[in-house]
Design brief:
Length: 237
Amino acid sequence: MKNIRELILIVLSSAILILFFVFSINFQKEIEQLKRDNIELQQKIIDFAEKINAAGMEEQKQSGEEEIKIDDVWVSYVDYELGFRIDYPKRDDYGVYQTMKMDNVVFIYDDSDDSVKKDLQKRSGHSFFDKPKGVPFALLTKNVNSDKELTDFIKGRYGDGCGVKEKKASNSPGIYNVSIGPDSGNYEDCFINWAVVIKYSPELKKVSAWDLGQAVNFVLDGEAIDMKIVDSFEFLR
């Protein structure tokens, strides 16, 4: 009987050890699965947060503006609301430059002169299109739904006697450089003795215009770079 009891105890002990071993393995598997589930949940939370952040950034971009650094001198100004970008130098041989936006006009101005910024700030809330002292470029951008509205825009800015003289394809696909002249053929009816830039996209239904004036505005390392800036202009798609 003693041997039988000992045998039963051994069998029971072995069975308990086996059950404990199996339970330990299963418990370990459950722990590992919980860890994996937790990691997956954390990753889903991170992915969701990143999507929310990206959506917020995209919404901010669509209604805002930013500057993208190109090198130590050049930046690309991007306006998501008005729908264009243009490269300009943060400095040249004569000044240090910054942008200021008022309604649908973007000024590139000399930031080294405090009086220029103060003068521009007085204009807040108005779509001034003139080019004050210390402001090389003042870009006006508008929506135009047709060639007729483009002509109306030109007449409103440069005079009733002015109209579209030529539309010439630029280096950017779908964007035209527009030159203006008198409708009558008499230049006294549309007298403009300074350089004018008009960029037009029939597809995107936008026009952007600014005056270069009668002299060079930007000089970098002794080289005039006005046209390099002009040629960098693009409407955003």
